[in-house]
Design a protein that fits this description.
single chain; alpha+beta; D-amino Acid Aminotransferase, Chain A, domain 1; 4 domains
Length: about 325
């Protein structure tokens, strides 16, 4: 049945089966003395109450502090780029197309460039593919076809080299930063890539559906194509100590590893992320930045995406690094002390 779990408030298992970010928020709210009701477990929709104060929260970061329009701006990557550019924030150059034929006509624009093909509206890296030169026309067509399965409008952008970082902005500041490493395995000279993936997926921190700190590494068509472009298959045996990447995109949701680097990130880039969130009117936002060289301050950067429903758990339970306890920042922002 649909739930209003009044069994809730002090039970340690109230968040059972819900996304880890929501579980974290529930635990902190209980610690602060708030009554917690699960209104819809499958939708991660909860209510927090104390005295005459009530707050509704969905998926840990969809709250009353954000306007209705801010998530709509971030969901639409074309609009996001326009707004950021208008505020003097660097974004990748690209084109937007409505048909595969339009995409193919735009291809000469990107001659001798690496490109990213992605749906106009997407999250968790769904439908996104990076093509490194030299790539053939058929690979480009297939990436476009794949992107169109997620949206009826597709964006083609120049791929910006450098490390990709996730900045979590809450309120007016960046509270945590992750370096996200694409899904990968390290060879031992004996086992195949498929066997190494199976072994890495046994890590109890990995699961599916965002209920664990990390997601399982997949062996699907995207991974197969990525390896094939490098002369590898799932049955290839990497040398001892050799790192093999299975994807170009570094999303934790597709099996990537998370490395906390909050303390090492220069304030300049943290301020860029906060400025990007403010430009779209977001109070809670995940900003993805490419930074080629952290040692250069100020230096080159590019904001490639803003996320309206950023995961919290990846900052509390990174593959390597410190627990940033970001759920506390969300409740503080809501004034739930």
């Amino acid at each position: 049945m649909k739930e209003t779990d009044n069994a809730s408030t002090n039970g340690t298992d109230i968040g059972a089966g819900m996304e880890l970010s929501t579980q974290m928020l529930i635990r902190e709210a209980l610690r602060r003395g708030y009554e917690v009701d699960v209104l819809d477990r499958a939708d991660n929709f909860i209510r927090l109450r104390k005295g005459d104060r009530t707050e509704y929260i969905k998926q840990a970061t969809r709250t009353s502090v954000d306007t209705y329009i801010a998530p709509l701006i971030m969901e639409n990557k074309v609009v996001t780029k326009r707004v950021l550019a208008d505020h003097g924030i660097r974004v990748p150059e690209g084109v937007t197309v409505g048909t595969p034929e339009e995409a193919e006509r735009a291809l000469p624009t990107f001659a001798d460039k690496d490109v990213v093909v992605k749906p106009k509206s997407t999250n968790f890296g769904l439908g996104v593919q990076v093509l490194k030169r030299p790539f053939d026309t058929e690979s480009f067509r297939e990436a476009v076809r794949y992107a169109f399965t997620f949206d009826d409008t597709v964006m083609i952008e120049e791929f910006i080299p450098g490390r990709e970082y996730r900045f979590l902005v809450i309120g007016d500041e960046t509270v945590a930063v992750l370096y996200r490493v694409p899904a990968n395995v390290t060879g031992d000279g004996k086992r195949t890539i498929a066997e190494l993936v199976e072994e890495k997926n046994r890590d109890p921190r990995r699961g599916t559906g965002h209920v664990k700190p990390l997601e399982q590494i997949r062996l699907g068509e995207v991974e197969k194509a990525y390896l094939a472009a490098r002369g590898l298959t799932f049955d290839s045996v990497p040398a001892e100590g050799e790192t093999v990447y299975l994807r170009e995109n570094s999303n934790i949701s597709t099996g990537g590893d998370s490395i906390d680097c909050t303390d090492d990130m220069p304030d300049y880039y943290k301020e860029i992320a906060a400025k990007a969130a403010q430009a779209v009117g977001a109070r809670i936002c995940g900003a993805d930045l490419i930074v080629p060289d952290l040692a250069r301050v100020p230096g080159d950067y590019c904001v490639i995406e803003l996320n309206f429903n950023p995961a919290l758990h990846i900052h509390d339970f990174p593959y390597k690094g410190k627990n940033r306890e970001v759920e506390k920042k969300v409740l503080d922002l809501l004034g739930l002390h």
